[in-house]
Amino acid sequence: MPVSSYEVIPEILNFIVNIRPSTILDVGVGFGKYGVLLRESLEIVDERYDKQEWRTIIEGVEAFRNYRNPLHEYCYDKVYYADIFSIIDNLKNYDLIMLIDVIEHFQKDKGFKLINALLKHCNKALLISTPLFPASQEAVFGNEYEIHRSRWKIVDFVDYDFNFRIVGRGKKSQLLVAIFPSKYQLHNTIRHHTGDLWFHDSPVKYLTIAAHIPHRQLTGGLKSFLNSLRWLRERGHKIIVFGDQGDKKNLLPSWSDLTPDKVLFLDKKFSTVINSSVCDIVLTVWWEQLPQLAKTDVPVVYWEKGHQWLFGDDLTLLPDFRVRQWMEFCYHQPCHIATVSDFASRALHARFGVSAAVVPEGVDTTIYIPATEVANRRTILLMGNPSVWFKGFDTALCTLDLLWKKGYRFRVKWICQVKPEVIDAPFPIDYIVNPPQKTIPEHIRHADIFLFCSWYESFALPPLEAMACGVPVIATDCGGIRAYAVNEQNALLVDPGDHEQLAEKISLLLYDDALRESLRKAGRQTALQFDRRKTIAILERYLSHIARC
Fold first, then answer.
1. Eight-state DSSP code of residue 479
2. 280 FRET partner, CA 20 to 30 A, in 49, 82, 122, 355?
3. How far out from the chain centre does Cα 473 lie?
4. Do 24 and 162 belong together in one domain?
């Protein structure tokens, strides 16, 4: 009877105590550990020592009858000794359903089938705990249900309204996921497609576009937004930027080379100034401004670039109902919503019931170009903000440390907004802190490998920029990257967090000239498909279509 991780117990119990379920179903009872812990946390703590006084109904399901023991009879009101699929249609509804170290015992397709079936019987939450890196495990005690058949990642849950936590470090890490039944829930696993792009044949109308500037920080989302505005202006559209940020002299950040037609410093009552006498359409990339912008008399487009709350990264499993209610209010304003990938569109649909058009990111392939001479200097490039945890730089550093210990030699370059605190790295690192934006393509094209380790992304633009520069890409399969990356065709993709697999791919690429050349050529061809002249034409047609509606 294999046991589950003890490190997740405090997180699980804290979640359960806070949502206060009156009915619980524990799928995969096993020894009965959680029956004991639940009774202590929900009953004994309130001095209900006598079983007759217990108020919480706790039932369980155990497929392997030989695990039956006295704890089952004492702690659970009822245990069904059967395969969950044989009884699931006859189960009642429960406030909480628990799948603790269970889902990895199913193939992925069957696991999704189980999740969707259980959600139909769930009132408050479906709580899943699964190892991020499940060890190889065959049948135990003759129990075929103990075989490990799948590994689950954060991005696997994109079609659900969920929060997640990663508990522990390294190979013993556990992924905790709380899925909340939603009126918007998709009842299949893949399956919200918005890629037909119905507006592609719309004729172009030259527009006056009022673009809201939410902040001046150097982020990937704002950088791509300002680049898009610059490209729209080059195509003949008039660009007005407005906002309440900046120092009343510079609304735009110093690192941007956008030259708008007009700059408006406004207070938060944007609708008093931004109207049909000023512009044809409003474009924004931050959801909190939608209630105010929706008061204007011109169409408002929100171009979702992605953010942590969209992907359940709330720093806690518990749903913050105030934030959730505010987000739902904002996303349901009378505005038009587009996003950068089908992956992000699926997340919007699952969480908010929003059907978003896909307007992808683009790269300027006339600036991001390959080096004229390719020489393997064994330079590995990292790019991004080290203070943003989901970018996975801890994974990148573990990967590089492992490679160095195995005897591989290389040099690391890291383009970053702030210098990271890396203690005693055995390999040399050149930090390129806040370089001028115009110099970034030059830094990229002289790398030999681009390493990208995010846990989740709406699109993942940096690897596409590296492809444009003819640099082979090794990346984690972080969701939005699938908009353009195909494993072993134009990139090498690895499960997020798996530094051993990342190290294996890098060691292969460091010395395989033919593979590097193949990825270099395929990557460049991929980037050309996302050339900014093609992607900005999509945005242009989309905005023209909305402005005419």
1. B
2. 355
3. 19
4. yes
